[in-house]
Every structure is written in C-alpha cells, then in structure tokens.
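Let us begin with a simple case.
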Amino acid sequence: MLSVTADTFRLAQVFTIARGSRTEAKVLTVRAFADGVVGLGECVPYARYDETLDSVTAQIDSLPEGIMRQDLQDALPPGAARNAVDCALWDLAAKQSGTPVWQLAGLPAPRPQITAFTLSLDSPENMRAAAAEHAQRPLLKIKLGTPDDMPRLEAVREGAPKSRIIVDANEGWTAEVYADLAPHLLRLGVQMVEQPLPAGDDDMLAEIARPLPVCADESCHDRASLPGLKGKYDMVNIKLDKTGGLTEALALRDAARAEGYQVMVGCMVGSSLAMAPAVLVAQGAEIVDLDGPLLLAEDRDAPLVYDAAGVHPASAELWG
C-alpha cells in the first residue's frame, strides 16, 4: 500500500534562480507499507516540467495496489511521482531484508562526497558577501541566467578567491550571450557551465566553441535523452526527480559514462530524504551538487551529515 502527504520545509533564506524566488520547499512524502514495514521516498514537483503537488499526487494515487518496483518503471513516466515511489520501494526492500540499498543494488559501499554549495541569484554586492561567507567551501555553484551576469561573476570570485566555481544559467542565456561570456568564465576559473541555453533550443552548442565543459540539466532526463545531447554537451546532470527514481538514475549514470559523458549528480531543493538515494548515484561523479538540506531552516529527523568530508551516506533511520 502507498500513501502520499505534502510537507513544507522553510528555507534558511530566499532562494532565487533565473525563473523566480522561493522561501520554502514544498515536497511530497511517499510511504510504502508491507507487513508492518514502512519505506520512505520524497519528490519535489517542479513547475518547469508541468508538475504540481496535486498532479503528482494524482499520479501516485493512480498506481495499483501492491505495485512492484520493476513494474513501476512502465506504470509511470520519468518524473517526480515515479521518483518518490521508486525510492520508497527501495527503502522498503532494504528494511524488509535488513540489507542496505547499496548492497541490494550491487553497488560498492558509499563514501562521503564533496558537494557544491549554491549561491542564489542576487545583486553583485550580495553575491560577493555570500561568497565571502562561504569562501571556505571547496566548490561553489552560482545561479546566473540574465544578460547582466558579468558583475556577479566578478563579485563571487572576489568574495571566494580560492573556491572552485561552477555556474548554472538555468536556460537563461542566448548563444550570443554565452559565446561572449565564455572567455570570462575561463578567466575567472569557472570549471563548468550548466544548461546555458534553453532545452529544445540548444542546437547552437554543437556549432560554437565549448572552451569549458557544458552540462545538460533541463535537456537530460533519462536514458532516452542521451541521443539528443550528442555533440552539444560534455556532462549530464542526473537528478532523481527527472529520472523518476534511483533505478533509472543508476541506469542513466552507466549509459552516460559508456557514451563518454562526465557525470554530475544534482537535486531540487528538498530535504535529506530526497538527497539520501542520490548520494548512492553520486559515488565517483565528477561534480556532486546535493546541497538541498544546507539551504533549509529545518529538515527531516536523522538528517544527512555534512562536514569537511562532504555529504555522508544516510543512516538507516533516514533511508536505505
């Protein structure tokens, strides 16, 4: 049996990207019940993909009683609904068997992973201050995506002169803006740019120089996305809310690597429960961006541990 509830987590501060701002994370929590055991999963419905709390809840409620994980892959499309149910069924299987998910999935024992910390879109002055506040972090991710991003880039580099920097344009640039910015990204030591052009309007990436790695986010959802990325991207951002769960995320990681792509593992703004399965996918990734809980003012019980070693694998009390 499955149940789904809506939960809200307050953010530590306003979080802004090119598409808008938010002050809270609204998520859905799925519980899978069997023989007195409960498995948990979380998803973040995303308006960019025409998802709402209500539409995703309806998808989950439409599933037949007792659905198995292998049948789920055909019962729902990739997206938030399948993600929460898939992860809940993995957690249920781990608790029923007394075996951690990483062993059930045939994976090596997970280790802590250094994660990016995201600075939201703001004025250059505020972004410089935020960068200085977090200058001790080894990897910063900057939210950009406007025609006036150069002062922001300069400000962040001034605030955090030693941190590695990656940038996420959230589909906000044109090919001309990106071509103009690219030399400055290199000059400022930016190591990767994520989704500079809109998904579906990114063919120019195959025709213009890519002097630093370009990562597909909105352009990459699951393995079916890979043929459309050829020649345009160097890296894929795997998010469980896009792939539709841990099952497809692991398959996408392996398929992407086989086709020569580097791997980034990212997240929506969610709680530790949403990050926990993604930590398994993130093992060995070139870039890990699982900082959702660091942006929250409140979190799940038994939250993930973040320290100088990075984000640690979940405890059994949380998931898996």
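The second case is a distinct protein. As before, the sequence precedes its structure tokens.
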Amino acid sequence: MSPDSDIALDGEGPLHQQIRRAIARPILAGRWPPGRRIPSEHELMQRFGVSRMTVNRALASLANEGLIARKRKAGTVVAIPSAERAVFEIWDISAEIARSGATHSMTLIRREVGPAAPAEADVLRVPADTPILRLVLCHASDGEPIQFEDRLVNIAAAPGILSARLEDIAPGRWLLDHVPWTEAEHAIRAAEANAEIAAHLKIRRGSACLVVERHTWRGDTPITFARLTSPAGAQVLVGRFRPSAG
C-alpha cells in the first residue's frame, strides 16, 4: 500500500467522491504507474471507515473514466492510459491532421530559453524570472498552413524538453507523451491576424482567426501556456475540463 500521503481524503463533498479523488491524484501525477495494484475494497473500507457500497461507487467511477482496471484474479490496478483519450481531450494538431488522412508538417520559427519576463510570467502563472522555453511554430496539413502556435513552457515542470527534437515532434505531442498533467483550461476567442501570423498562415493581415489559449498544470505547478491561432473555418477541438474528479 502507498504511503499515507498518497491517498488522503480532502474533506470536500460526499465520501465516495473524496475516495475517488484520493485515488485519482497519484495516478494522474504519475506516482502510481500503469499495472500498479491499488488498495482492495476491504483495505479502503478499513482505511476510511466507510461501507463497501461507498468504496465500490468510487472505484466504479474511476473504472468508467479509464483510470483503473478491475480484474477478477489480479485485483484492481492502475489502467494503461489511453493515448487516444489524451489526444482528444488536449488537442494535438499532429494527431488531428493524421486522423483526417492528411500529412502533418511544421516549421519551428523560434526557440529561445531564458527567464520569464513579467508579461510572460503573468500569462504562464509563474514567478517572474522563472526559466522558460519560448516556442513559435507553424503547423501545416498537406503543406497548407493551418495553425500558428506560440508556446511558453515551464522548464522545471517538463524535464527533458530542452533536449527534445522539437523540430521533429510537435511540442504539444511531446508534452502529452512525457509530462503527466492534472488540469487543463481552454479559452476561445476571435482575433484578427497580425502581420507575422498572416505571413505564416498565408492569409491577409486582419483576416478573422479563431484563437485557443490553453493552460495545463500538474497539481499547482503550471506546465505550459499555448496560444493556437487558426484561420476562421479551420477545424478545432477545444474545451475546459479536469481529467480526474473535481
């Protein structure tokens, strides 16, 4: 069984929801890897002083979300994460293009490392001077520009990203594959293309665009902020959600 700190009730809401969150946290944070056995129903009943029905309700919810797998002989274990689910919920442009039958390509326009300027720190929600990676890219579908990406990454929250070949793999895809996240937020707005965006997307300056601004966190630690700009009418997938119980 895990250390006590790994599964603790937070005192908010019904007990079955508290147990659900207590188990989801170490899974989503990466502390409990796929295949790891989680405490049995009996262990959880004793630990939290609750009924079997309450525990079963929490586990059933986690199983429905795909976080755990309940096996008759092996017991309950952490499920193998569904890459498709993660890609769908946090939109990965390279996967979306591939799913449509087209070929994804991208151009890495700028890549810079340095302390966050006040405006950058504010948008990424980190202290000023936090070491960050700045990325500017343009994604294309069958050679046709479809999305301009402006991204800030908290280097401390994404170990290994400085050595990643981000000219070959989309930063969003790399982060999905290597950095567990626990919360995401999307904001959607309309905007006019400025000169740089218009040049890379091959549209007229001032053309209508759809902008998706996306934050992701691991616990209370910000991971990345991305501003994704697409010409009006381009297919996008956006939302705001928590993958675990809230």
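The chain has two domains: 4-78, 83-231. The two ends are 24 Å apart (CA to CA).
Keep these points in mind for the review questions at the end of the chapter.
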